[in-house]
């Protein structure tokens, strides 16, 4: 039974939330963008798969604004002088965690925080419960980790 649970968890972690084909990004990481709701330019400093679509993190002056692609206009100009992330969106990695569970994961987000790239992976499988006769899953199961926490498969 334990092996079946381990296999089920491994399948869960390696099943991308976006389906079989990863959806293209509307703007690139580090691209200069125009945020229509703020009438201002900024840079895309992160992207993460949330609630069925890409959520973009935009650095505007001294703050970060999270928004959908429909509120962005890309310029095609990339911010110079910053190294690219070590891992790509959708890449399979080994998550170096201390728990006795499957360590294989998929990179579901990338963010630049204080000049360091962080990566979003699921750290726990969902806990399924029944809520008013419907199947519900547990809350946020994602973790932001650095490239030292991950190993390329």
UniProtKB/TrEMBL annotation:
InterPro entries: DUF1392 (IPR009824). This is DUF1392 domain-containing protein. It comes from the Bacteria. Pfam families: DUF1392 (PF07154).
């Amino acid at each position: 039974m334990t092996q079946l649970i381990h296999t089920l968890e491994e399948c869960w972690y390696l099943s991308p939330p976006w389906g079989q084909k990863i959806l293209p990004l509307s703007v690139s990481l580090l691209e200069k963008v125009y945020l229509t709701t703020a009438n201002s330019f900024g840079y895309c400093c992160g992207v993460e798969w949330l609630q069925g679509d890409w959520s973009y993190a935009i650095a505007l002056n001294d703050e970060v604004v999270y928004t959908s692609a429909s509120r962005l206009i890309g310029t095609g100009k990339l911010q110079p002088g910053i190294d690219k992330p070590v891992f790509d969106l959708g890449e399979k990695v080994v998550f170096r965690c201390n728990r006795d569970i499957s360590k294989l994961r998929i990179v579901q987000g990338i963010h630049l925080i204080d000049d360091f790239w962080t990566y979003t992976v699921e750290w726990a499988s969902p806990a399924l419960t029944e809520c008013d006769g419907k199947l519900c899953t547990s809350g946020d199961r994602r973790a932001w980790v650095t490239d030292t926490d991950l190993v390329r498969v």
